[in-house]
Amino acid sequence: MANQPIAELFGFPPDSETERATRYRTNRLCPYNNKVPSCTKDSVTDPLGVCTIFHGEKLAVICPVRLRQDWIIAEQAAAFFFPPKANWTTLVEVRLKDKQGKSAGNIDVVLVAYDDEGRITDFGSLEVQTVYISGTLRKTFFKPLMDDRTAYFATDWAKSRKKNPGPDYLSSSRKRLAPQLIFKGGILKAWKRKQAVAVHSAFYDTLPKLPEVAQEKADLAWLIYDLVWDGHDKKYNLKHTRTVYTEFKTALDKITISEPGPMEDFVAALQIKLDAKLEGATLAQLADTSADIPADEPDLLDQLENL
């Protein structure tokens, strides 16, 4: 099992033969509060039912619905948004529009507080962020597993030369999380509504260190979770690890603005390129000027390779 990438399939370990795991796998159901009973990851008719993959000795949650287990995330977001004993509920996939009426995207979960007559008194947004993967999962692993479980588990995946897919945390934070915070979060911030983001701890650990504030000063809470093995149920269960309270603007700046390295290194890299060009180097030769860099300057080499 350790040499193949699938950690959870339709909510259960892929080798689980329990009656419940078999029923969910056979009917392609989702046990984690999807908007419909079936799994709809990537496709309604042919869902990619992989919730979580192995990444070395760790896990990487790749489906946002996985973090909805028992609606723990909603309960903890409500504790941040609303006073104790408030009446509240969840509304999922709520369209948000900007001043011009254009869509800023769907909010994963909107929590609304309401009075005894059912009128909304407050609301907050909850985004659920998991990681994209690089590499092929469906064709190389998921389909063979669903087609022939016996053959799949008999395969020595370490010798198969099939490359396991892996999490792409950088793309996930810059191409998904950051735009969500900018477009949707910016509107909610202007409305002075609190926000929360639910993430797997492995994802959060790849973000820059966010400046923390006291809960009463925060307008953005990071709800951080892990999957913990339950030996009795023979499956992973969601567990809240910690909550990080931040201010929206400072957290957004930290995520979206790259910390600069030494400018001197960049100028040195430019000088090497310029010297080569002035000496008549071709474009191909200019691309290979990294050969002129001494071996004790790895940071400069890295920058040249990206020019």
Automatic annotation (TrEMBL):
Q: Which InterPro entries match?
A: Resctriction_endonuc_II_NotI
Q: Which domain of life is it from?
A: Bacteria
Q: Which Pfam families match?
A: NotI
| Residues covered by the Restriction endonuclease type II NotI domain | 20-238
Q: What is this protein called?
A: Restriction endonuclease type II NotI domain-containing protein
